[in-house]
Amino acid sequence: MLIVKRAAAESIGTFWLVFGGCSSAVISAGFPNVGIGLLGVSLAFGLTVLTMAYALGHVSGCHLNPAVTFGLWLGGRFPGREVPTYVMAQVVGAIVAALLLLLIATGSSQFYLPADGLAQNGYGENSPGHYSLAACFLAEFILTCGFLMIIMGATDKRAAPGFAPIAIGLSLTLIHLISIPITNTSVNPARSTGPALIVGPEAILQLWLFWLAPLLGGGTGGLLYRTLFEGHQLSSDEARPPLPGPASTG
Fold this sequence. Notes:
By secondary structure, this protein is mainly alpha-helical. Helix content is 68%, strand content 0%. It is built from eleven helices and no strands. Helix 1 packs parallel to helix 4 and helix 6 packs antiparallel against helix 7. The longest helix has 27 residues.
């Protein structure tokens, strides 16, 4: 069945996102002398989405994120009946990724889960920069909203074909550059769930924020794009360039 193939693609793609992104943070970010740091981790997350979008986008759309699936549904781009299947597949992929990352990380005698974690998200004392709950919620909401608008715009049938994965991957890189110090960057409830379930009670107790804020942000982004831009065709006057020259035919 087609839905089974699509669910498998979502699970594999989300596995790649969580395993690649969180592994870069847990294993490579602080490696002595050659650690990739915040910039490297941000780029790693962006590259996971970019590569999977090209590899599996034609199969499932490559959502890899419950907030994206929810936002695309509210934006009129995805059928509501398939939302639960996509979300379950994404969460399964994220959990498997976190488990395998734990197995690899514990192969080093220097790794200690309670202290090092698995790049889980958090607020307050569990925020990398000790940001408040309100600040973390606002950051996750705004960034997920913007992420959905970029996805909707980049995949619009009027957009330049073939470049959507690049725009989406780079936007996720930017999002991480902004918010790793704030929440360790979620904008993705599945990405938050996998590591939290492994790390334990404290991370699980804070997991609600990393479902609620991204879902609200993603839904808002999808609705905003649908309301403001979906199906809007430029008139000849609107399409005319600001400098003297031949009018565009749009």
